[in-house]
Amino acid sequence: MSRIGKLPIKIPSGTTVKLEGDTISVKGAKGSLERKIHPDVTVSVDGDVITVKRHDDTKKSRSLQGLTRALIANMVHGVSQGFKKELLVNGVGYKVDVKGNQLVMHLGFSHPVEFDLPKGISVKVEKQKEIHLILEGYDKELLGLTAARIRQYRPPEPYKGKGIIYSDEVIIRKAGKAAA
Q1: What's the CATH fold of domain 83-177?
Q2: Which residues touch 48 (CB under 8 Å, ≥6 apart)?
Q3: Which residue in 9, 49, 153, 158 has the most C-beta neighbors within 10 A?
């Protein structure tokens, strides 16, 4: 039984939801998103509440109901409030700068790494003991993909803890050969 799929989604004020055939589009203060709906589930908009129902009780339909409900809830939350993801850049000599719509990172390579930010994603750089990259956007899927692609350039290593990590990630440190 899908418990998440049965929950209704409340539409906040200032957000509009349109349902046209098998496509749902959500517009809000931050932007607009649209997504196709799988034919095994039905989405209905009644006033300021969205409900997702399944056609039958098969395992696939139950899982699609929960998935569709979660995706639509993320769309509604994203266009009304937005999402934020924070990365930490930790390493001697590592630098990060923002030039227009491009992120220029010096990560210990012989050349700077230039990363083009996708449309809808903004970044702020805060320099403290370690560099904090704060990514913001209204599309949760695109935000997570962008953060993963940035992290891919220098993933964290377990001996010194250098690299790009998520702010809530815990890196299990290894002792190295001096401890052996």
Answers
A1: Outer Surface Protein A; domain 3 (3.90.930)
A2: 10, 11
A3: 9
